[in-house]
Automatic annotation (TrEMBL):
Species whose genome carries this gene: Hortaea werneckii
Record InterPro entries: ARM-like, ARM-type_fold, IFRD, Interferon-rel_develop_reg_N
Name of this protein: Interferon-related developmental regulator N-terminal domain-containing protein
Lineage top rank: taxon: Eukaryota
Family: Belongs to the IFRD family.
Domain Interferon-related developmental regulator N-terminal: start-end pairs: 2-238
Organismal lineage: Eukaryota, Fungi, Dikarya, Ascomycota, Pezizomycotina
Length: 314
């Protein structure tokens, strides 16, 4: 990797065409996940940020966002650096792309939303950053672009999920507000640690409307995407311990079936995604690895450790 990364970085810095620059950025993202190194973030971060801020083409900015996310996750970034990159992505979203000279570009906003969620899965405690992020994501629910709406909604679900953690020995569960404790049906006791959004009822109303959206401007595909995504997101906002496709039906042992999202990886392999953080990681890895996901999942330790989920046969 010693000479390869600097060589490809030159193509990012001085690429003569949009295609050359985009391919160079994507290649660096692949290298980072194939051979993660703790020192790589410092080497590539500034170049990636320049491609986002100063790139002439939208495709370059998007590739820069994706590669910066990969470098932050796999290149040895500190917690402070992770938060700085997430702040950059949040600024892109809150300004509708204007902060990187791409006003009202839905694809760029979607990329920033998605990679914000991917990086958020690395952080243990997000209480301090949740309020500003939630305000931005709730605003984006009003977007005219379905991909922006869904990406914002999935981040909202992730933040609600992260506000609950397992009960610890020092927690006096009996003295807590019953509404802040989730338990039963064979599941571990989970406790609400902080308030994610103060106007929860208003948010729930918005989510329910999106889950039933029937606007004529929407294609059948977009309408189905909205309905499926926001039905799940609304359920999580109501009960943050429930992941995507959650079923309250009980199995033969009296336990809820729980999240039943199945993703087909190809080659007869199925993965069950039972939490929003797992969905964010899966989607982030799929964007980066595309058709090579299953091979990397089987043989690349860094990928498996990012998403330690059992893969079943169909």
């Amino acid at each position: 990797m010693g000479e390869l990364v600097p060589s490809i970085l030159k193509s990012v810095k001085s690429g003569q065409t949009e295609r050359e620059t985009v391919l160079a950025l994507r290649a660096l993202g692949m290298i980072l996940i194939t051979d993660p190194r703790d020192e790589v973030y410092d080497t590539v971060a500034d170049t990636f940020k320049r491609s986002i801020n100063d790139g002439e083409y939208a495709a370059v900015k998007i590739a820069g966002i994706r590669s910066l996310s990969a470098a932050t996750f796999y290149g040895g970034a500190s917690t402070e650096e992770v938060e700085e990159v997430m702040d950059l992505f949040l600024d892109i979203v809150s300004s509708d792309g204007a902060v990187v000279e791409a006003p009202d570009n839905a694809e760029i906003v979607t990329a920033a939303l998605e990679e914000w969620g991917f990086l958020a899965t690395q952080l243990e405690d997000m209480e301090e950053t949740t309020e500003a992020a939630m305000d931005t994501f709730v605003d984006q629910l009003e977007s005219g672009d379905v991909d922006v709406q869904v990406a914002a909604g999935e981040n909202i679900a992730l933040l609600f999920e992260k506000s609950y953690t397992d009960a610890e020995p020092g927690d006096d569960v009996e003295k807590l507000d019953p509404n802040d404790v989730e338990t039963g049906h064979g599941q571990p006791t989970m406790i609400k640690r902080y308030t994610v959004y103060r106007q929860k009822h208003l948010l729930q109303s918005t989510l329910e409307s999106l889950a039933k959206a029937s606007s004529k401007r929407l294609s059948k595909k977009d309408r189905k995407q909205l309905h499926t995504a926001f039905a799940d997101i609304a359920h999580t906002v109501e009960k943050p311990t429930r992941g995507p496709r959650y079923s309250t039906a009980l199995d033969e042992d009296g336990r809820e079936y729980g999240s039943r999202m199945k993703v087909n990886l190809g080659a007869g392999s199925i993965m069950t995604i039972d939490a929003w953080w797992k969905l964010a990681r899966f989607q982030g890895l799929k964007r980066l690895l595309q058709a090579g996901f299953l091979v990397h999942y089987e043989f690349n330790e860094a990928v498996y450790e990012s998403l330690p989920v059992v893969v079943d046969d169909e």
